[in-house]
Amino acid sequence: MSQAGKKDETGPAFREIPFFEGMTNHLIMRTFIALTGLVLIVAILFTGCTSEKPGGLPLPTPIDTFPITTPVTTIGTSPVPATAVPLTTPGQVDLSIRASPEKYSPLMSSTVGIGLTPQYSGSAAAVYSWNTSYGYFISWNATDSKVTPYNSSIDTSDPTIYWSYSPDDMGKEKPPVTVRLIVKTPPRTHGGGGTFAWKDLQISWENTDTAVITEAACGIQNCHGMEISCGKNIAEMCTMEYQLGDKCRSLASCQNVNGSCSVVKQEGYTVCMSCVEECNKTSGGDPAKAFACESRC
Predict the structure, then answer these.
(1) Is the CA virtual torsion 192, 193, 198, 202 positive or negative?
(2) pLDDT of 104-161, one tens digit each?
(3) How many CB atoms lie within 10 A of CB 126?
(4) Angle at 218 between CA 213 and CA 219, to 5 degrees
(5) Out of 125, 150, 239, 271, which could bridge 154 as a Cys pair, Cβ 3.0 to 4.6 Å?
(6) In which residue ranges of the chain is CATH 2.60.40 found?
(7) Does 7 have pLDDT greater than 60?
(8) Distance from first CA to last CA of the chain, Å, rounded?
């Protein structure tokens, strides 16, 4: 039997792979390994990116929490501007801020700033949370002349705190200032707390560097009728006409209460207004009957 017809009995049958076909298979295998590695790298990078917090999103602001700030080392330290303070609904208690002196400049030697003292009608223990849109706070004991400056926010149980601003800002244009006082319950062992009331105090500027205490404009904006509108656009001139409900308006006024311009009702206002509303309903649309009825309210 010829050599070509012999069967190789030493191992399995095989065929000789041409050179170019072997090279092609080798390149395909290398390409497959490279693509697999690239997919794994992309997957790892994608996993790492999604584990990070997305940038640019605002952080949630805690409501009614104001940690005590660390005292700064010098009065001239530039304070950090105060952020807007979110508020819970205040309770119905009387709160005002006594300010003295009503005008202040860093050149004054008799005081370290404008003294701010809460006038609070509540009987429960309270923490006073002070916040300012410009400037900073100072605690000052006039007896021993100990001065401790703070930043733009501070929680304290002291009856009086002082507001001031950096002497470095003298001669510069300065913004109007809002000082906000929030009266809160003392911190509890397990956290949490509530807001009793809050009050805003406005400070404007005289001759660039003198801070002046000002009250936010608040008054009755409309002259007639059963509805009273309160705000800063105070009606200074009214017509001589008379409308239903005008009789009761003398028993109400607009005042700054807990940071907002609100209607303050005197004794008898609610009864008077209820009577006028009833007259309006029973008059059948006849103004003469309505006014006659109102005169008896």
Answers:
(1) negative
(2) 999 998 899 999 999 877 767 788 999 999 999 999 876 777 899 999 999 998 889 9
(3) 19
(4) 140
(5) 150
(6) 95-214
(7) no
(8) 138
- Local confidence band at 93 (pLDDT 50, 70, 90 cut-offs): low
**CB-based contacts of 265, cutoff 8 Å, min separation 6:** 251, 252
What is the rounded CA–CA span in Å between residue 71 and residue 195? 25
pLDDT at 92 over 80: no
- Residues 292 and 55: their CA atoms lie apart, in Å, by 68
Region of poorest pLDDT, from 13-22, 109-118, 189-198: 13-22
CATH of domain 95-214: 2.60.40
β partners of residue 139:
148
Q: Does residue 45 carry a pLDDT above 60?
A: no
What is d(CA 227, CA 100) in angstroms, rounded to the nearest whole number?
37
Strand blocks (E) in the chain: 95-100, 103-104, 114-120, 127-132, 136-141, 146-149, 153-156, 161-164, 177-184, 195-206, 210-214, 219-220, 230-231, 252-257, 260-265
* Amino acid 30: pLDDT: 61
CA torsion through residues 89, 94, 95, 96, sign = positive
Residue with tokens 């330290």: 77
CA nearest neighbour of 100 among 213, 216, 176: 213
Beta-carbon contacts of 218 under 8 Å, excluding residues fewer than 6 positions away, are: 230, 231, 232, 234, 254, 255, 256, 261
Q: What is the pLDDT of residues 199-222, one digit of tens each?
A: 888 999 999 999 999 877 788 898
Six-digit token pair at 62? Answer: 């805690």
* Both structure tokens of 48: 């790492």
Question: Is the CB of residue 73 less than 8 Å from the CB of residue 136?
Answer: no
pLDDT of residue 177: 93
Structure tokens at 144: 């021993």
